[in-house]
Structures are given as C-alpha cells and as structure tokens.
C-alpha cells in the first residue's frame, strides 16, 4: 500500500543503467546523465526534489532530468514553474479516514505501473531518485526490477512503509537524522539532512528588513505561526481564541492560516494592527528573519528549515500523519533540548500560554536557538547530488 509518508556511508554496488554502463553513452566531460526524480504531493517533498535537481544540474549541466508526479497534485504546478518537465501518473494514497475511498486504489496502482513502464522505456534513465509521495513507489519499484540504480531520500525520522520496502534494493538511502538503521540497511545509509530552498539556506535578510516587509515593529518580539499550505486547525483555533492575550503581552504575530477557512481567521486577525495574517507566505526567508519565536507543525521540511534558521520553536505535531511521524520528528529535537512540544489536542489550552512564557524567557530562547542550530545541515542538496553522480561514474 502507498501512504502519504512514502517520503517524505557505505553501499553495495548495483548495475548501472537499464542496460549496464556499456552502451549508455556516458560523457562525464559534458554531462549526459538521464535522471528521473519521482515524488511530491506536498511542498515537503517537492521543494527538496527541486533542490536536488538544481544541485545535479549545477554539477553536471548536461544532465537531463524528468520528474514523475501524481496527477492533480501540487508537483504538477510547482515543478514546471521551476523549469523542469514532469509526467503525471494515476496514483493515490491509502485513505485512513474513509476505507470506502480505497476501493479504486488497486486499479490505480496497476495503472500507475503501466504508465511508469512507458515513461521509463521512453526516457531510459540512468538513475531514479525517490523523494516521497504517492508516485515514488511505482517508479522506484519498476526501476529496481529493471536493475536501474535507485536512490531514496527519506526526510522524516520515521520511515514510511513504502520506503522501507524499497530500501532493501536501493543503491543508497539519504536520511535526515541518525538512528535510521532500524528502517534501512545500515551500509546503504548516508546522513545528509534535508535539502532546503536556497532562498532560506543562503538568506541574508536582516531582522529590520523583514519586519518592515510585514509592516511590523522591529523593536518588539515577533511570533511566527505556520501550519502548512492547508493550515493547522488546532494552531489556528488556539491563536484565534486568544489574540487579545498575545497582543496584550506586547507580542506581534505573523500568522499563516493556510487555505482552509482562511477568510474567517483573516477577518479576526485584521482587527489588530500588530498582526500580519494571510493564507500563505510566499517569501519564507522574510518570515524566518522577522521571527523571534516560531509555532509550527513538525513536517520534515519545517523541522529542517527551522534548524537552518536557528529559531526557538514550539512544535504542534499533526497527530494523524502516517505512523505519527510528525511527533517522531519533533521529539528528535525535543530530546536534544532543541525545541518544545505541545500535543495537538492540548493546543487550545496550552499553546498561547507556552508561547508567552517562552517570549519572556530569554535564557530558554538562546538555549533552544543554539541547540537547534547545531542540527542544521544546509548543503544537503549538494551532498546528495555528488553522491548520485559519484555512483553513476564508470569505475576504472
């Protein structure tokens, strides 16, 4: 079965290319590699995938890259915007909330394998990279059956079932954190971290500039609240019911509500001059630069970006993520005294009070900032790209 979490140092060699390296016409002086990158569904899969593609193109400009994604998902828009071609396949994930909606899943899975077979036969990739999301499994599984080298990027601290199955025959597995030997063969694992958008990883935006961007006062503490592109109900409801308390403690708020019921929260937030509220933040580097404290879900990319930004954070993990991986992601930092955590079902009662308490505790803010910064790996995209290209070079 496919789940949304099909994410998202040494190795044993595998045959190079569908037909082996002889006759694929490698020309590493001028490039010539053909690589498929499969996955998507959420920004947490798509943006790392694009970062890896960009890094590969930087190292080997002549490389041809083709993305494969799920029809109707976010990648079908974001990948072309980044300048890459993408093929869509008919695939969906297992719906845990409504079993009746899974009736068509076997048919879609079979159809997706036929679609993947045609795509691979036409493109003739030298390697396939899976970044998580519905489309990763059929693409990587077919590639492995064809003896094409496969690479997995597992962004979460708890691996998805699909990635665990694929990992047995993968060439190399890139992971975000330590302790992943319980999911994958240890000899295939390389800790790289998660690729971060260059606008965030290489940001030089000042706090003053960022506050001005949001129309806020640079001299006051600023809280950034983000819950993903669709929003986080528990975070939104907690903030909406206690805006007076936030403003009353001299705090400013940058509030990304997400698309779901955005109008309601924007109406409440716009009643205060000390708030910036909208359904989506297009320039996250500005938001991180302005923020003194962050409230966030604990998706893999959110965690990674916060490590790079070195921000004190209160995580409110989404409890219904597959294998509860957001809680695992958050606890990986909490155990290192690099973050705080509030349970989703306790957010309404505890989140705002915890935020105010943290805002008043400069010592704890510094401790969290220092500890989360130690976990940052800002060049994951380049590390992964070099590993993939290195594996593809013909051995002497």
What does this structure look like?
With 396 residues, the protein is α/β, with parallel strands linked by helices. It folds into 2 domains: 34-195 and 379-392, 3-Layer(aba) Sandwich (Rossmann fold), CATH 3.40.50; 200-373, Glycogen Phosphorylase B (Rossmann fold). The chain is built from 16 helices and 13 strands. The strands form 2 sheets. The chain has a 7-stranded parallel sheet with strand order 3-2-1-4-5-6-7, with helices on both faces. A 6-stranded parallel sheet has the order 10-9-8-11-12-13, with helices on both faces. Residues 1-31 and 94-99 have low confidence and may be disordered.
Main pleated-sheet profile: 7 strands, parallel
Helix/strand class: alpha/beta
Number of domains: 2
CATH architecture of the largest domain: 3-Layer(aba) Sandwich
Q: How large a portion of the residues is in β-strands, by DSSP E?
A: 5-15%
The CATH superfamily of the largest domain is known as Glycogen Phosphorylase B
Query: What are the segments in which pLDDT stays under 50 over at least 5 consecutive residues?
Result: 1-31, 94-99
Report the count of strand segments: 13
CATH class of the largest domain: Alpha Beta
Strand order of the largest sheet: 3-2-1-4-5-6-7
The sequence of SSEs as H and E is EHEHEHEHEHEEHHEHHEHEHEHEHEHHH
- From the alpha-carbon coordinates, what is the Rg to the nearest angstrom? 22 Å
Shape: elongated
Helical fraction equals: 25-40%
Number of helices: 16
In the CATH hierarchy, the third-tier topology of the largest domain is known as Rossmann fold
End-to-end separation: 41 Å
Mean pLDDT: 86
């Amino acid at each position: 079965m496919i789940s949304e979490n099909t994410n998202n140092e040494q190795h044993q060699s595998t045959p190079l290319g569908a037909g082996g390296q002889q006759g694929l016409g490698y020309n590493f002086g001028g490039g010539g590699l053909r690589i498929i990158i499969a996955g998507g569904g959420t920004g947490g899969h798509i943006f790392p995938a694009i970062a890896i593609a960009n890094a590969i193109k930087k190292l080997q400009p002549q490389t041809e890259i083709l993305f494969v994604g799920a029809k109707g998902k976010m990648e079908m828009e974001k990948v072309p915007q980044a300048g890459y071609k993408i093929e869509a396949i008919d695939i969906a994930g297992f719906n845990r909330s409504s079993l009746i909606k899974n009736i068509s899943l076997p048919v879609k899975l079979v159809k997706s394998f036929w679609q993947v077979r045609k795509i691979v036969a036409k493109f003739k990739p030298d390697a396939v990279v899976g970044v998580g999301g519905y489309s990763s499994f059929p693409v990587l599984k077919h590639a492995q059956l064809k003896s094409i080298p496969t690479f997995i990027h597992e962004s979460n601290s708890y691996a998805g079932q699909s990635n665990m199955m694929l990992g047995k025959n993968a060439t190399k597995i890139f992971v975000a954190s330590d302790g992943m030997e319980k999911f994958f063969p240890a000899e295939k694992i390389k800790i790289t971290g998660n690729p971060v958008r260059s606008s965030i990883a290489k940001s030089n935006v000042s706090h003053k500039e960022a506050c001005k961007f949001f129309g806020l006062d640079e001299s006051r503490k600023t809280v950034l609240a983000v819950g993903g592109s669709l929003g986080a109900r528990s975070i939104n409801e907690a903030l909406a019911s206690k805006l007076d308390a936030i403003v009353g403690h001299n705090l400013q708020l940058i509030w990304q509500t997400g698309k779901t019921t955005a109008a309601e929260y924007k109406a409440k937030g716009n009643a205060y001059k000390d708030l910036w509220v909208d359904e989506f933040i297009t320039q996250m580097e500005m938001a991180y630069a302005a923020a003194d404290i962050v409230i966030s879900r604990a998706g893999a990319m959110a965690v990674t970006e916060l490590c790079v930004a070195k921000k004190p954070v209160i995580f409110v993990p989404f409890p219904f993520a597959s294998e509860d991986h957001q809680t695992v992601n958050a606890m990986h930092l909490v155990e290192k005294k690099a973050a705080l955590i509030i349970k989703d079902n306790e957010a309404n009662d505890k989140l705002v009070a915890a935020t105010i308490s943290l805002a008043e505790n400069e010592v704890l803010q510094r401790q969290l900032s220092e500890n989360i910064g130690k976990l940052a790996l800002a060049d994951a995209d380049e590390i992964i790209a070099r590993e993939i290209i290195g594996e593809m070079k013909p051995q002497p």
